[in-house]
Amino acid sequence: METLDYNELAVPGVRQLKPYTPGKPIEELEREYGVSDSIKLASNENPLGASPRALEAVREAIDDLWLYPDANGFHLKAALAEKHGVDPACITLGNGSNDVLVFLAQAFLAPGLKAVFSQYCFAVYPIATQMVGAEASVAPALPADHPMALGHDLRAMYQRIDADTRLVFLANPNNPTGTWLSGERIREFLASLPGHVICVVDEAYTEYAESDELGDASTWLEQFPNLVVTRTFSKAYGLAGLRVGYALSNPGVADLLNRVRPAFNVNSLALAAARAALGDHAFIERSRTLNAAGLVQLREGLEALDVAVVPSAANFVLARFDRPGAELNEALLRRGIIVRPVGNYGLDDYLRITVGTEAQNRRLLDALGDILGD
């Protein structure tokens, strides 16, 4: 039988695709490097773990694993609708918010159409755009000496919108930079968009934002029918292992997203855990308080080492060093500490560091002090 060139068989958008590279798991690090007692400050997970209410809900739901989950997620949608003051018809559930971002590309992008996003944006935006064969129009970020270094430049993004543009992606706060936009500026941007452009405001880290300056984009849906807001349970709610997120939008947009959404894309344990986690306000407050203190600890500790830190409203900091991030990452791995090098974003001298517990943050800072002092 003739040997096939599978790459040639693939559609063009997939042929050139570079898959998303996740943070290294603790088990993999300890297996490869022969270390133990490792800590992971790489994937912006909640160091407090999962919501206790969510864990209890999983225990109660586990006996029904032989049944398919509710494909429509009725009870979770009802809880989300109450939280955001929207109709359940405005909600699309995803296997993490990554899922709904891909649905948006599938529903609204194609060859000949464009998506606009910032230079240092979440990696899934360009991946989803390329996957469907659409064009990525990348706006330069704010310069490194700007007060909101490497953040979104809305003027530059607006200048890239044309008749072929269908999606604009804004992350607030942004990953991997941690930078943010005020709610007022986003509202002004939304009001300036032509009707054929859908703006996606990705609020994956919004529960960590201490200031009301960022606003809550979900409260603007009636005013802006071309607005889509995405959220996740993977960060502050501590449910990264269960993979559940959602989009809020005009019902007409949600209807289209639900047409491409696979049935049963959110499993029964995730549905139960997410619903319970929504009501665990005390856990979110504990997470926010721990994170606020950790941001200060990391920023002050890094600055004491003469390391520049980008402003952050999320649960991580982006730090710039005087040497390649990959080199520092390797040295930290050998000490049992996993952080995130971001050379794939074009940020070769930076590391993204998740806020951990006080002890974890101190271990990271002490290790960096030893490495940088050598």
Structure write-up:
The chain is built from 14 helices and 13 strands. It is α/β, with parallel strands linked by helices. It folds into 2 domains: 7-49 and 282-373, Aspartate Aminotransferase, domain 1 (Alpha-Beta Complex); 67-279, Aspartate Aminotransferase, domain 2. The strands form 3 sheets. A 7-stranded mixed sheet has the order 2-8-7-6-5-3-4, sandwiched between helices. The protein has a 4-stranded antiparallel sheet with strand order 9-10-13-12, with helices on one face. Helix 12 (281-304) runs parallel beside helix 14 (358-373). The model has no long low-confidence stretch (mean pLDDT 94).
Structural key phrases:
single chain, 374 residues, alpha/beta, Aspartate Aminotransferase, domain 1, Aspartate Aminotransferase, domain 2, four-stranded antiparallel β-sheet, 14 helices
Low-confidence blocks of residues: none
Biggest sheet architecture: 7 strands, mixed
Q: How much of the polypeptide forms β-strand, as a percent range?
A: 15-25%
Radius of gyration from CA coordinates: 21 Å
Structural class: alpha/beta
Q: Name the assembly state.
A: single chain
Percent range of helical residues: 25-40%
Text of the CATH class of the largest domain: Alpha Beta
Taken together, the total number of domains comes to 2
Shape: globular
Q: How would you spell out the order of helices and strands?
A: HHHEHHEHEHEHEHEEEHHHEEHEEEH
Mean pLDDT: 94
What is the CATH superfamily of the largest domain?
Type I PLP-dependent aspartate aminotransferase-like (Major domain)
Annotated CATH architecture of the largest domain? 3-Layer(aba) Sandwich
* SS field, number of helical segments: 14
CATH topology of the largest domain: Aspartate Aminotransferase, domain 2
Name the strands of the widest sheet in spatial order.
2-8-7-6-5-3-4
Strand runs, count: 13
